[in-house]
């Protein structure tokens, strides 16, 4: 069900069975000494695959380039502007609608992409009323996070390469985690951190925003599975109520 | 040497050894009943890997979305506008320069991307004089193609999912070729084909533009290896003459 | 200290004393049968004035036009696109920097403006390093809200013309509240409300998102004063540490 | 009839009676030592109110930010580009049409806004044929000005913070005039003033372009009332001939 | 001194003698039954040549495409948007500065171009401080027009294919005037003509806005020569005062 | 049949007979010591006239400003960006369709314009299905060139101010050729010339890219006449098959 490897003839067959396409989107961004630059890409891609196993859907190639403002001064970060990212997401939606997709499900692994994704979804809402766009960034999991978390959350809810995200990776892409390098480096955020543009290299030298050493596969599994369940539930409900497009 | 899987710490080490980053770029586009939609992605990605084996370079994640005008009416085609594609390529160049890359090598597997890539390269030429941008679309192979080709070339030099491109796939991504479905379907192009916008679905129903059945791994190997040699030669020359950036 | 009513000669005097300019920004948007369309404008404007009383600052004329996507189908909503709103905010910042302002404080009364404001702040961060941009939307008050609130919060944290916002108005602009028309109309939000574009007229006919009848001036006073204290604290800290621009 | 202070329910009632919305638009710009930076805002706003008293119309909040090129080097000037100003004016027109407005009357107090306003009107003319856009900048008063004026007009018809504009303020916003500071400072304009971009700070140090000391309330009243009469006459004629939209 | 016909070697010689380039710009637009669509092109081009005879200057090829909103519904009108026209004028200015031009003199034959030209001049003023941009549309001739005119001027000062413009053509491009078809067709303009977008085909069926039959070569000669004198005087003054760039 | 010199009444007559408009487009660009800067303008204009003699068509004024990246550092080059050039070409197409043109034939004399022209044609293809856009840059002449050429072609097929282009000029605009200055200056192109942005002033000091001294009128005539025949054949075929628009 991977668009990249299908022929157009096979796609025409699949489209008769499902109108859902899933786009995994992440970013390239420093994630501490223990996680790869493509952490958000691995997470989005594998989450998307797990969703696609539960609900018939075509999976688009992972979009590996995201909006990375806060960490753009650190090696390995590649930053696409919101404007350009939004434009590409609209182009993709426009094209897939043309060949029969009616549900465009964006599974996002990188917080910084949320603005561009929402803007793209709204633009498509006007432009193509027949296309329903969904966007998911680990939906409905905050209470599970509260439950499993052992470290203190940062004020403002920031998390990055921390106990939580490292746990996601231990569950979804363990071969890419250097757990022996996972450190605890919770920064003291300045009081105006949320209220004025602040590149993160000003507040952390390791780009870890929490205690990565506390991460476990089990924590990741719990949260990720809850996210998957929520995504599947929402998509299935929409389909069964036939409250279509 | 794959950017996606490195940590930022590892990247900082690599950057001391090489200033070259390779971006494989392709597209999703119908390629007949025997080749996958992502044909141009597979070709660009594997060609890039082969180049990177010969010349120390960091490989960026494949950009799987290209400019697909001519086949945009056929199932599976995803079309990014030239304007947006160019903008993203400039964003990527701007970011990689920031962390030390000085040679931005775009290996393209899809003809339709050439305009956006060249425009991006020229914009970066003005914007970042210290960044040298290269773009390669099977460079310097026309005489090899003439040599190995058994079918007649189409007027205007068009080729798509044909003897040549299928041969590339048989060499670089054979597991994705359904050779039993490879057909000969050379269309009669109208006389004004090159001189007025003409979506290809008007001239072919299979989107094969030649005789795919004549493809062999050997033909692909010969052409692709020549392309690789040319790319490597050009990059090496630049580096050894130290006619740097 | 109101820019509109000063002469340029008076401004030149003031600039010697303060480098802070406050821009109140709101929107025109339906706020139920009991609150005016300009609710967010009144709130931003009066909050700005109260801040300016505590910290020497020049107050710009209220920008009364905001990004109103969710309620754009209801009478009285005026919707400026994020792109245009951001552009204007950058223009204003560029101009005020030119005549000596070094702290551009945007006090926002309308949730929908947050994206454009943050984008503008980031653009100014690159463009004018000497200008420090702050953006405040009732900062640091969530625990006070939890304390005073009698009604249940909506899932997703949505609030609009409800117990809380009506309380703000009862404190800051009581002459514009028709309290006798304040109703309880907490909608049942569909499960995918946060995950797909949903104009609010699909979920509420009164555009009240909570129990407005529970609003009191005291609740508003408590929350608003906390917001003011936070804003003043952050601005003062920055100034006294002379961690200037 | 002030949109800011109405509820959406009240607006729905008003829309049954009138389809006219008036947008006052001015600018922040140095107006000499005797007039406030917001002179053009006060003039537009109060002129709009006087028109609205004579013809049933909804008055939008004053747009206080204009295109200020010529005086952008003088303290207090805030300059919005023509492109952005036009975009916002189109957004506003698009929104008010949606809730029933059919006549969008822009009352402008600042000469520099005329280009953006006309461009916006033309764009709306194409985009929304059902919306009639009017733009007024003291219409049809040149013969009255000639009649009351005691000072010599500047070549090219430039006027700013002069006998005429100060008279407008003495009539419409006298509480904001420091008449004791009103000076005569008629600059000698260079011969190419109209034919090449020339910031006004190059030709005047006070930004007064004439003899402000000759201003009187009576002169202002005469001209302004003529402008109001012309606006009302044009709007009424359109309405009575039912040569609607 | 015509750029089109010079070699680059000859240009390099000329640049040592003059830093002035003149761009004639007109439009294609209906001009009644007696004047060609390219009337504004002929006028601008020949006026430019006459100026260049009096003051050493390089003449660029005529830009024959202008902003034609008012007559865009009449056969033969070609309408370039203000935005695009401005962009091209900036591109031209940027290029000629690069090869040594320091005075970019735009001689305009079409009223509708004035906005784009002024905007372009202002953009170049910021972008290239060393380039001085002049724009002339029959400068300083209103009193001569008043003197020679036999017909009544239209309210608002509109003129098109009328006594005056036809006289210009009789002087500058008589071979293109069909004087036997010159008619008097002064339209009654509606009262709101200046205050709301009004395509001219709504008010005239011949697109003549006055009495073309009264045109004479002598009238044209008088006005055009005055315009030329003014242009030359302004340019010479600038050069002799060496108040250079 | 020249649009510039027709009245709108005459055009209305012509439109009954032909729906074809030809736009000649060239550029200002250094063409060696023997050819004028406007070489591409002369060629496009005269080629267009010859085509119009064979096929009834309206000829638009020559667009003399093109995309000149490679030679933009040499005196006399004027460079319009692809984006702006494309926009103008779309504006022109949109306008001529409005007055009845159905075939918009762009005859291009400058290689660098090809990208913008093709992009404009594609945009018009979507925007105005009833308008058929053709673009010709010496179509179908490569075998004739091979036949007449005495000098070796450059690798990559580059040609500029060389044997071939000079021959075109000797046939179409001989009065503008300084044949006594025609030189042979075939540059050695660096190996990466086609693969990275390279301004031509880096590889040639005369901007001649071949042996201009070998040019003859006869060679030019042969190639140009073949190009004309091809253009006419394609246009006629389209018209006679009535496979209209």
Automatic annotation (TrEMBL), chains A, B, C, D, E, F:
Alphabetical UniProt keywords: Hydrolase, Metal-binding, Zinc
Domain of life: Bacteria
SUPFAM superfamilies tied to this protein: Creatininase (SSF102215)
The enzyme's E.C. designation: 3.5.2.10
Cofactor annotation: Zn(2+)
GO function terms (MF aspect): creatininase activity
Family designation: Belongs to the creatininase superfamily.
Record protein name field: Creatinine amidohydrolase
Organism name: Thermoanaerobacter pentosaceus
